Amino acid sequence: MASATSSTLKTPSVSVPQTSTSASTNFPPIKIGTRRSTLAQIQARLVEKNLKDAYPDRKYAIHAILAQGDKDKVTPLQQLSMGENAKSLWTGELEDMLLKGELDMIVHCLKDMPTQLPPSLAIGCICPREDPRDVLVVSPRLTSICKSLATLPEGSTIGTSSIRRAAQLRRLYPTLKFADVRGNVGTRLAKLDAEDSPFAAIILAAAGLKRLGMGDRITQYLSKDSGGMLYAVGQGALAIEVREDDAVVKEMLAEIGSERTTRACLAERALLRSLEGGCSVPIGVETEWKGGKRGVATGVEPAKEYGKDGKAIEEQDEEIKDGEELVFRTIVVSVDGTESVETEMTRMVTSIADAEAMGRDVAKALVEKGADKILEKINQEKQWAAKKALGTN
Ligand SMILES: NCc1[nH]cc(CCC(=O)O)c1CC(=O)O
Questions:
Q1: Contact (CB, 8 A) for 156 and 176
Q2: Is residue 349's pLDDT more than 80?
Q3: Residue with the nearest Cα to atom 8 of ligand 1?
Q4: Is the predicted pLDDT of residue 311 greater than 60, yes or no?
Q5: Among residues 51, 261, 353, 359, which one has the fewest Cβ atoms lying within 10 Å of its Cβ?
Q6: Looking at the predicted structure, is the pLDDT value of residue 25 above 60?
Q7: What is the CATH number that goes with domain 134-230?
């Protein structure tokens, strides 16, 4: 992000108070909401810093709120996120506060945001994406002999609560076992490191570890070409939720959003929205901008380094170049890993509408290849499991 001195303040179309008159500093602070975890608070500070660089004369205040999903550590995630609860579990309180004006924006991991937001709330911007990949973190007991999924001892137990992660790995590594591991990133690492830990390794998002300054725990980066794993829709990107009618805050956020990340992530979310029937869909994606004038393949957001304080070390948010195309890969896998459907599509994406159309077309391509049958079966199994848990079956 631009530093405070070098940032170019474009003339906003609405009046964003930002001049260095004494009046502007008297405006109430912009209230930034976030969850209470260390990672959530680092992410909120990152957004605050980017806003400060663009609008140095405004004041900001971070409100870290304990979410329902953080309080309940017992109920299995799959169950907590069923039906009615799906939308409010992590963000319900924060959204209520935003609607009441007690907050002006909420910083979210885009991955955790439902594809449909409550009425009168909207995504104000999507910030430059961190590394979107999943990673393998091997137990310290094994790191000297195991550097990858392929070299883990047969029968090893991998900690992950994500059916997307487990299903993709079952497909390629049928001898591995999987078990739930819950809690924030620090808790999961502690469970892996414990003397009596049942886990040989866990799977985490690179983005969270890097933002926490714990990138040194990464044993293997996973991708289609390494380990055969595609990431979750929106993984690695931060999204800012706002009141739809708050023109001032939206205008401010336009300064810190990323065109590249926004188009790639909105394509991913349009795909998910097209496929889901009320339940979360275990789908892996990989999006990448390729070609154009630079002529080199780059990630969605070229590798950006974060310091231990979570601040971006290097500025990196170039516009999309002429001729650059979005490569969009997907996989849908049955829970047991025995059935799978994959697609790859490459297209010029010159607007958000283009991006969303591409996402919908990718969904069609997946359905044509039979992904709907895999998803239908998963939804049936989930509903059955939920009924059983509630004692109605
Ligand atoms: N499901 C929890 C969650 N939500 C976002 C991240 C990581 C950061 C990100 O994707 O932006 C994580 C942790 C993880 O999956 O390892």
A1: yes
A2: yes
A3: 208
A4: no
A5: 353
A6: yes
A7: 3.40.190.10
Identify the CATH assignment for 1-125+237-256 out of 3.10.105.10, 1.20.58.760, 3.40.50.410, 3.40.190.10.
Answer: 3.40.190.10
Beta bridge partners of 122: 242
Of 89, 108, 109, 214, best ligand 1 pocket probe by most atoms within 8 Å of the beta carbon = 109
What average pLDDT does the segment 297-320 reach? 47
| pLDDT exceeds 90 at position 80 | no
Closest residue (by CA) to atom 5 of ligand 1? 109
Residue 89 dihedral angles phi and psi, to the nearest 5°: -50, -55
CA distances for 81 relative to 115, 160, 386, angstroms = 14, 16, 10
User: What was the pLDDT predicted at 4?
Assistant: 37
DSSP state of 111: G
Give residue 128's pLDDT.
96
In whole angstroms, give the CA distance from residue 249 to residue 101: 12
- Which residue's alpha carbon is at the smallest distance from atom 11 of ligand 1? 236
- Cα 84 off chain centre by: 22
Range with the poorest average pLDDT among 28-37, 110-119, 307-316, 370-379:
307-316
Which three-class secondary structure state does DSSP give residue 200? Answer: coil
Distance in Å, CA 10 to ligand 1 centroid: 33
207 lines ligand 1 (CB under 6 A): yes
Ordered by start, the domain boundaries in the chain are 1-125+237-256, 134-230, 258-393
β strands within 218-315, DSSP E: 220-222, 238-243, 283-291
For 173, the token pair is 């590594």
d(CA 185, CA 193): 12
Tens-place pLDDT, residues 221-257: 999 999 999 999 999 999 999 999 999 999 999 999 9
User: From CA 232, how far away is CA 166, in angstroms rounded?
Assistant: 12
The architecture that CATH gives domain 258-393 is 2-Layer Sandwich (3.30)
Task: Decide if 134-230 and 258-393 have a common fold.
Answer: no
- Ligand 1 contacts CB of residue 139 (under 6 A): no
